Amino acid sequence: MFDNLSYKLDRAFKTLKGTGKITEINVATTVKEIRRALIDADVNYKVAKEVTDKIKEEALGRDVLIAVSPGQLLVKITQEELTQLMGGSKEEISIKGDPAVILISGLQGSGKTTFSGKLGAYLKKQGRQVLLVGCDVYRPAAVEQLKTLGSQIGIEVYAEPGNQNALQIAQNAIEFAKKSGKKTVIIDTAGRLAVDEAMMNEISSLKETLNPSETLFVVDSMTGQDAVNTAKTFDERLDFDGVVLTKLDGDSRGGAAISIRHVVNKPIKFISTGEKMENLDLFYPDRMAQRILG
Ligand code: GDP
C-alpha cells in the first residue's frame, strides 16, 4: 500500500546523495519533497507540514557522524518522526470486567463485522471465552454474516432477530454471557453509510449504559481524508479508546494511517489487511514507519 509513497520518499532522500553535509539549503529541498510525497499520499496538509518542519529542525540540529551520510541521517530522522506521529509505541486494548465488554463502532462497510470476528478469534487464541453479539438491528444480513463468522471460528453468537432495540439486545447478551461463563463480550453495532444523528444517539447510549472496557472505532483506510474526518466526528460523540484501520491491503495511499493518531489523538490499536480471519495485526508505529520508508 505504501509503494508510491515509499518510492517518492526514496527519491526525496536521493536529492541529498553526493552532498557531504547537511545544510539549510539541501535539507530544505529534501524536506519539501518529503512534504509533497506525504500530501500526495493523502496525509492531512497540516500534519505533513508539522512533521516535515520537525524533520528539518532535527536534521539541522544534529551533527552528521562520519559514518552516516546526510541521506541516511534524514531517513533515520524521518523514520523517528513518523513513528512519533503514529503514536510512538504499541497500545493494547483494555479487557476488564466480568464480562469485559468491547464495543465496536464505525460506518457501514468499514469492516466492523469482519473485525468483530477477527478480534474474537484473536482473543480466543489467548484462551478467552468470547461471546459475539449482533446488534446491527437495521441490517439483518450483518447478523447472518456474524453467525457465519462465528461458526467458522468456533465462537458463539448472540442475536435476537426481530428485536429492534440494540441496547436491550446488548444487555440481554451480557446477562447471557454471565450465565454461560463467557468473560469477553464483543458487540458489533449498526453502521450507516454516513454519520447520522440516530446512529450517533444509539451508539452513545450503548456506550453510556454498558460502560465498555474498550470502545473501538473501525475505519476504512482507503477513504483517506474522509477516514480522518469520520474519526473526529465519532470521537467527539463517543470518546472512543482506539482505532482499527481496515483494508490496508488495498491500494489506499496510506494517509489515514499516518494522520489519524495526530488529528484525533487516539491510538491505532489494530490493522486489518484482508478479508480472512487471520488478517489482523497489532499496530506498531515503528514497524509501520519502516514499511512506509520501504
Ligand atoms: P461492516 O458493514 O462495517 O460490518 O463491514 P463488513 O465487515 O461487512 O466489511 C465490508 C466488506 O469489506 C466485506 O466485503 C469484507 O469482507 C471487506 N473487508 C473487511 N475488512 C477488510 C480488509 O481488511 N481488507 C479487505 N480487502 N476487505 C475487507
TrEMBL record:
It catalyses: GTP + H2O = GDP + phosphate + H(+). The keyword Hydrolase applies. It comes from the Bacteria. GO terms for molecular function: 7S RNA binding; GTP binding; GTPase activity. Residues 267-280 form the SRP54-type proteins GTP-binding domain. GTP binds at residues 106-113, 188-192, 246-249. It is found in: Cytoplasm. Its EC number is 3.6.5.4. Coiled coil: none annotated. One of its GO terms (cellular component) is signal recognition particle. Keywords: Cytoplasm, GTP-binding, Hydrolase, Nucleotide-binding, Ribonucleoprotein, RNA-binding, Signal recognition particle. GO terms for biological process: SRP-dependent cotranslational protein targeting to membrane. Its main location: cytoplasm. It is an enzyme of class 3 (hydrolase). Involved in targeting and insertion of nascent membrane proteins into the cytoplasmic membrane. Binds to the hydrophobic signal sequence of the ribosome-nascent chain (RNC) as it emerges from the ribosomes. The SRP-RNC complex is then targeted to the cytoplasmic membrane where it interacts with the SRP receptor FtsY. Belongs to the GTP-binding SRP family. SRP54 subfamily. Composed of three domains: the N-terminal N domain, which is responsible for interactions with the ribosome, the central G domain, which binds GTP, and the C-terminal M domain, which binds the RNA and the signal sequence of the RNC. Part of the signal recognition particle protein translocation system, which is composed of SRP and FtsY. This is Signal recognition particle protein. The lineage of its organism: Bacteria, Pseudomonadati, Bacteroidota, Cytophagia, Cytophagales. The chain holds residues 1 to 294 of 445 of the full protein.
